[in-house]
Amino acid sequence: MTGRRKQEGTSVLPENLHVPEDCRAVSEVLSRVGDKWTILVVGELGNGPKRFNELRRSLGSISQRMLTLTLRGLERDGLVTRTVFPTVPPRVEYELTQLGRSLLKPVSAVGLWARENRAGIEAARQRFDMTVVAAK
Q1: Which of 68, 49, 67 is closest to 59 using CA atoms?
Q2: 57-82 tens-digit pLDDT
Q3: What is the pLDDT of residue 118?
Q4: Across the chain, what does the average pLDDT equal?
Q5: What are the tens digits of pLDDT across the range 15-37?
Q6: Which CATH number fits domain 20-135: 3.30.530.20, 1.10.10.10, 2.40.50.140, 3.40.50.1100?
Q7: CA–CA distances in Å: residue 70 to residues 20, 32, 75, 84
Q8: What angle do CA 122, 114, 58 make, to 5 degrees?
Q9: DSSP string covering the chain
Q10: Measured between alpha carbons, how far is residue 34 from residues 4, 30, 31, 127, 130 in Å?
Q11: What is the pLDDT of residue 124?
Q12: Among 96, 64, 102, which residue's Cα sits nearest to residue 81?
């Protein structure tokens, strides 16, 4: 631990933080799982398979286009499966894969943390903004 003091509750960082492949992997995964709609869709599918309109109703303000894009991205990343049933009209269900289910715990934790700490973050932003305005 050269030059770095370990904070309580944190792990020691590796010596080389900027391995290009690792940075790219973290960036790609965070861009997917850090999206608010991804967090909400994964959380909703954690309750079991859902049809498109069930998901849309349960998420409230998501547009059809955004839900479509989110589901396609999750399917592409192997987090969601899309099953088409041969009925008239065709029935389509979305379900978390095993990989997607493994994302439930961390996504739920991030969502909970955000809800629990929103007021504190907003207060910190206001304090910061006031010091910036005062410094001008």
Answers
A1: 67
A2: 999 889 999 999 999 999 999 999 99
A3: 95
A4: 86
A5: 566 778 878 878 777 877 778 89
A6: 1.10.10.10
A7: 27, 9, 9, 18
A8: 120
A9: -TT-PPPTT-PPPPS----HHHHHHHHHHHHHHTSHHHHHHHHHHTTS-EEHHHHHHHH-S--HHHHHHHHHHHHHTTSEEEEEE-SSSPEEEEEE-HHHHHHHHHHHHHHHHHHHHHHHHHHHHHHHHHHHHHH-
A10: 28, 5, 5, 26, 29
A11: 96
A12: 96
Half-sphere exposure of 97 (CA within 13 A, CB side): 12
Write down the domain spans for the chain: 20-135
Residues composing the chain: 136
Number of Cα atoms under 13 Å in the Cβ half of residue 109:
5
